[in-house]
Amino acid sequence: MSAPSHNEKDPERVAAGLKASIHNPHVSKEAKDSATHRLDEMAGTSTHESKETEHEHHIMAGYKAALKNPNVSKEAKNHAKQALKEHGAL
């Protein structure tokens, strides 16, 4: 997974920081309420999409690895090649 540029924030890291704020005893109630609200807004958005994209990248990497693995059958290599072509990864 590639790191986001310095202008983009990683949603998982943002969520982790918000959760830390919620559980920190030195943070005001207002700040905790704000963090809770932001977490609620983030739920089900880009984090889910990025996990799906990451999963798809892993699948494509597996197909690429299958093409180079001498223990993979010719039929499986043909299937991997076809899947990579369909996804524009070959």
UniProtKB/TrEMBL annotation:
Stretches the record annotates as Disordered: 1-90
Basic and acidic residues bias spans: 1-13, 27-41, 48-59, 74-90
Domain of life assignment: Eukaryota
InterPro entries, per database record: Conidiation-specific_6, UPF0654_domain
Any GO CC annotation of this UniProt entry: cytoplasm
Pfam families, sorted: Con-6
PANTHER family: UPF0654 PROTEIN C11D3.01C-RELATED
Protein name (record): Conidiation protein 6-domain-containing protein
